[in-house]
Amino acid sequence: MAPSVKSFNLLPSSAPAEIANYANRHGGASVRLQANGGLVLMSAGSELSERMFTIGGTRGAGGMLIPEVHLTVERLTASHVELFADFVRDHLASAIHGGHGIGFWVENGKFVCDGIDFVIGRESAIELGKQRGERAIFDLHNSETIYLNDDNDELVGA
């Protein structure tokens, strides 16, 4: 049976380090941005009532795309987390609500950061991902990357 999602509300002072440590151990992390500036790490754990997925291609204030950032590092630090969280918050401006966040994952041995949206329901997530032209979405419940194009149409564990 696949793990479900557990959220960890992190204190502002410890959140960036905890998120970086988690991402380094697990090859990535999905983090919700709170309106009050807090960060919530979404990870395997206790039950959620519905399936959650993350999708890149988040648009900020004025509809501007929040760009994906390819870091040149193999390990994430608290400073990376803080800088990218501030970067996404600046782009979102007043648009922050519980559905936005930041995603970190490893691609070609280096970390990538992107603004993400949290969506409930596989079909809704796939549809939105395709509309945005995303390569993939991430299934938090099963910890799987779901590729959206014909080249990578299989489920790949993350």
Number of helices: 3
Distance separating the two termini: 16 Å
Category by helix and strand content? alpha+beta
**Unreliable stretches:** 1-7, 45-49, 153-158
Helix content: 10-25%
Strand % is 35-45%
Morphology call: globular
Rg (C-alpha, Å): 14 Å
Average pLDDT, rounded to a whole number, is: 79
Would you give an account of this structure?
The chain is of the alpha+beta class and 158 residues long. It has one domain. Helix content is 23%, strand content 35%. It has 3 helices and 10 strands, in the order βαββββαββαβββ. Strands 1, 2, 3, 4, 5, 6, 7, 8, 9 and 10 form a 10-stranded antiparallel beta sheet that branches. A hairpin with a 2-residue loop joins β6 (100-107) and β7 (110-120). The longest helix has 15 residues, at 78-92. The radius of gyration is 14 Å and the shape is globular. Residues 1-7, 45-49 and 153-158 have low confidence and may be disordered.
Blueprint (SSEs and pairs):
Layout: E1 4-10, H1 15-26, E2 28-33, E3 39-45, E4 52-55, E5 69-70, H2 78-92, E6 100-107, E7 110-120, H3 122-131, E8 136-139, E9 144-147, E10 155-157
Antiparallel strand pairs: 1-3, 2-3, 2-6, 4-7, 4-8, 5-7, 6-7, 8-9, 9-10
